[in-house]
Write a structure and sequence with these properties.
By secondary structure, the protein is an all-alpha fold. It has five helices and two strands, in the order αααββαα.
Length: about 170
């Protein structure tokens, strides 16, 4: 039993480290988007040259940025909440409501993780490409959705567990 607890603790530590790292990756992507868009605008209006890939790359990067940061935002309790009604109740009711909503979020995220993984696998197996701005495998863009929802699922379960510990 001690080995199992050690294993879970190690997995938890690794998970937390990854969740703390992913927003930095999102920030780097956002920084690159800012630089390339600025450079593209400057070049367009000075020498009438544009990077055709910047708009598409920005579009796809925004999808990645969103899914890279969601689990961290949940970990930091930064998601928008409609807590006006909840604040009218006592701490015990608030805690159980947070447990319930965290489990609902986790259940929903499990569905999206599964569906997203199946769709990504379908795109990969059928070699479906995006040709909107340039030709790339579509699974390479979509793969962030099940990855992001997986991290959000685990973080939601951890949040529910955290609130559950407060009931004791």
């Amino acid at each position: 039993m001690k080995k199992f607890i050690k294993l879970i603790s190690a997995i938890n530590t690794i998970f937390d480290a990854v969740v703390r790292f992913l927003p930095y990756l999102a920030a780097i992507m956002l920084f690159c988007i800012t630089i390339f868009i600025s450079l593209d605008v400057i070049l367009r209006y000075t020498i009438n040259y544009t990077f055709k890939w910047v708009f598409g790359g920005t579009e796809y990067s925004l999808l990645f940025i969103t899914f890279l940061a969601t689990a961290w935002v949940l970990k930091e309790d930064g998601h928008v909440k409609l807590d006006l009604l909840l604040n009218a109740f006592g701490e015990r009711v608030q805690t159980w409501a947070n447990i319930f909503t965290s489990l609902i979020v986790a259940g929903t995220c499990i569905v999206f993780t599964y569906a997203g993984a199946n769709y990504t696998l379908y795109l990969y197996q059928n070699n479906i490409t995006l040709t909107k701005y340039y030709t790339i495998p579509q699974f390479a863009v979509v793969i962030i959705i099940p990855i992001g929802f997986f991290f959000l699922t685990v973080q939601s379960l951890k949040t529910a567990y955290y609130y559950f510990l407060k009931t004791k």
